Description:
Radius of gyration of chain A: 18 Å
Order of helices and strands of chain B: HHHHHHHH
Number of strands of chain A: 0
Largest interface: A-B, 72 and 86 residues
Distance between the termini of chain A: 53 Å
Strand content of chain A: under 5%
Radius of gyration of chain B: 23 Å
CATH class of chain A: Mainly Alpha
Oligomer: heterodimer
Number of domains of chain A: 1
CATH class of the largest domain in chain B: Mainly Alpha
CATH architecture of chain A: Orthogonal Bundle
Amino acid sequence: MATLNNYLLVSGLLFAIGLAGVVLRRNIIVVFMCLELMLSAANLTLVAFSRFHPVHGLPDYNGQILVFFVITVAAAEVAVGLAIIVALYRARQTIHTDELDSMKG
Amino acid sequence: MPTFLFWLFSTVMLIGGGAVIVFRNPVASALSVVTCFVGLAGLFVGLSAFFVGVIQILVYAGAVMVLFLFIIMLLNLKEEAKRAMPIAPILAGLGLVIAFVVQLLAILSRTADTTLPAIDKATLARSSGELVEAGTIGASGKIATALNAGSLPDVHLIGRSLFTDYNLPLQILGVILLVATVGCVVLSKKSSPSD
């Protein structure tokens, strides 16, 4: 049977992949997708802790409800973020982060 | 969940995640994210979080990723041209990630491990008794019946908590979704030259 540390390792690796994507990729949509990967890695940690620390013999549902809230807020965030990306593309005709440097000091 | 299924779903998830940053075509990246989320939903189901697994597929792999694909195709992005990237940011980024993984391994090798607590017919019947005694659920309600029959009424339990203990956050969440909807409309409206 997989133990808690196995789940934590896998979710940490997924988080590291997401972090690598955010730092290394220059396409703003791919960066956004990697952010979603990092949120999902946190969700996996929450669900693993909820299952491995039962309350009254059942998984701790407080953790799973937090996951539910994270997923809902992430959906709203994606909708607003993509609208911002579309507006940005209309204004600049690029979504390459190296070319979006007007706020650079 | 049998160990081999855990490793199968983890491998699907991690390969999908890795493919997101390897592919240069954004559409291929988006489809890799879907693969990653399907593996993740498998892990959720293996952790007896059936409701979370289902909404992971429906909301994330379904709605959110379709929205991503829709925007990628709307913007008509070409495959990224190979361009010379400065070496310093790449090294810094990789160093950051490697430092994170090393820290993770160091911490996990020192912490005590927990094995999976069993959830079976006997423990479910016992938790049904405990919950009825604590007054959280009714003795003849749907949750108690399902628990006594030896199945885990995942959705009922989450729904019960969501509409009792977490009622106010749920209402606030509704307002957030409304604000996001209005925000999207405002952001994507073309400003007419008259105003």
